[in-house]
Here is the input.
Amino acid sequence: MRPLGNTYFVGFGVFFLTAAAVSAAACDGGSDASGTSTISGTSTTSGTGGTGGAAPAEPFAPQGCMFQVAARPEYLEWSESKPETSATPNIRRVRLGLGGNTKPGEPGKVDPATTIGIGWQTDDGTLASAVRWGSSPDPSTWPAENRTTGVTWLTPEGTINANGNQRMHEVYVCGLTPETTYYYQVGGGPKDSEVWSDVYHFTTTPNNPNTPVSIVLAGDSRGQDNEAWRVLQNRATKLGATMQLFSGDMINFAPDQAEWEKWLDLAWKDSEGKLSTLGQLLTVHTHGNHENHTSLFYGNMLLPQDIANYPNYAELFYSFDVGPVHIVVVDDYWVGFPDGDPAYIPTLTAWLDADLTAANANRSEVPWIITMHHHGELSSSTHGTDSEVIAGREYFMPIWDKYHVDLAVAGHDHNYERSKPVTGPADSPTPVNLNEGTVYLVCAGVGADAYGSGTSSFTDVSHNFSSGEFIGFYSILSATKTALTIDGYELHIDGADVKFDSLTLTK
Here is the structure.
């Protein structure tokens, strides 16, 4: 969710394109010659919202948290939780996310060690948005005070396969203990007739830099071929990962809620109907070109807003620490297409400078810096020479060099390519000794169609899944205070995943 200011964002207007045209537009960056999205016919500005075109809805301050959340202007019936449920609430697609402020040094900064966001869908008549939790799987043992409420709204239906407005709920729980497993339910309702979901559980991330962490990395699940996204979630569950990073392009057609629900369902439950990662393993996302800044992207995700400092760009960039790693997540769309919003790059640059300056000053405690955005700076595959990719390379590489980012991860090309450690100039990346430059990693294709691979002077490892012998790629990033290891895996349906790449950086 986010409010919008006096800048261009995609809204829901008349849908001009056929499905085929939408696919082509998205694959080309989703833009016309000016960089403005062509998926929807109208833009959305501030001045209306949260109440179906009436006065703007008031921001909501989650209990015990030092940040606020707010409605997007096109959301309908935005309100705080009410003790109302229908006869069949149909609580579904329970998902984890993040809330918090993003400016370095501000109270309420994003922190998955102490804060979690929880979202879900119900039928339209259910307005109860509550979460209760405890330290055991038995709800009867949970303290009565371990309960809080949030907000609910209707996200307007998409313009492809329109299936009605979607009733969404979000709750944020703050003040949690790091490295602790919590069990929870979502629901609520009138006294003595509350309705609650299954019992889910999650583990908060460590805030001690001496605690090792394991992070699953993937991207580009659009198309959902071979149910690869579900297969990967099964792996992530068995691996016992700390968290998961996803570099964008969840779906093919951003205005199609049915696609979003398929993607969510594949992570919600496994093929046997058992709860999977969606509501139990924190997955952090960045915006890809197929998401197209649609309301369905924001309505289905839970991302940090910081409505006080960045009201026009809430949910587009944020950072946090997990153990010995500082993770920076960026929407790079208007970097590649700056005419779409000329104010974005200056805002992003100022934020990156502040964030990375603070992170560098804290290297003795949190030594590793990892960045994630969608369009990879260095790729020898299908999109490697696209104008928006080159624009991103020219923008990001000098910043990553300045602050000695250790690893820059991305997607967009549906293959695997890891660079040697390199520094700029951007038009001629220069290999340097291990631990002296930035490693650039494209690791994508967990449901999207396979692309071919290639090599360049900066390439160390290049691999593709075009043969059909396996169905995609993922990486595991393992970090301690002295070592960061990147392991690349082929994703096989039968579980016989092959590790084909490994690189360890040291401090």
